[in-house]
Specification:
With about 160 residues, the chain is an all-alpha fold. Helix content is about 80%, strand content about 0%. It has one domain. Helix 2 runs antiparallel to helix 3, helix 2 crosses helix 4 and helix 4 runs antiparallel to helix 5. The longest helix has about 35 residues.
Length: about 160
């Protein structure tokens, strides 16, 4: 296999940049809104408030690093003239939906790191959180499929 075949496609780089920004955006919004502004929970609620604040800081660092990595990829794509809004949007929706669904199902329910909110009926919160996540993820995957087909056609018929 030659080096040209092993390099990521421009479509793939746009998708990865979008996924990273989707992860970073939703993680940032979750941390800023639910952790800091509303004080509904910390990233890790099974210990002291100090441990919760440290976990929030690490969570915030994750969102920041994902965002910076995404922007570096976008700048490279823009410099090369290969940035594609539709592929990037497909990645963003996929990353945002995946993170939110992962958070709502795995972190909240399987690991029990925290809940969306405490001392309330969680069912409406869980339903809204996970339905929005599933819709974002489904839209991202659908757009990803469409953009991948377009990218393959443009590779075959320049």
């Amino acid at each position: 296999m030659d080096s040209q075949a092993r390099r990521p496609t421009q479509h793939g780089r746009n998708i990865v940049a979008g996924i990273l920004l989707g992860l970073g955006t939703v993680a940032f919004l979750d941390e800023a809104v639910f952790h800091q502004l509303l004080h509904w929970h910390h990233f890790y609620d099974k210990s002291t408030s100090d441990a919760g604040l440290v976990s929030d800081g690490l969570f915030h660092a994750f969102s920041w690093f994902a965002t910076v990595a995404a922007l570096m990829l976008v700048f490279g794509l823009a410099r090369d003239g290969t940035f594609r809004v539709s592929a990037f949007a497909a990645g963003w929706l996929t990353g945002a939906g995946f993170f939110q669904l992962y958070d709502g199902l795995f972190q909240h329910k399987v690991l029990g790191l925290h809940q969306i909110r405490y001392d309330v009926n969680l069912t409406p919160y869980d339903l809204v959180w996970n339905i929005v996540a599933a819709l974002l993820l489904a839209a991202g995957i659908a757009l990803w499929v469409v953009t991948a087909r377009r990218a393959r056609r443009s590779d075959v018929h320049p």
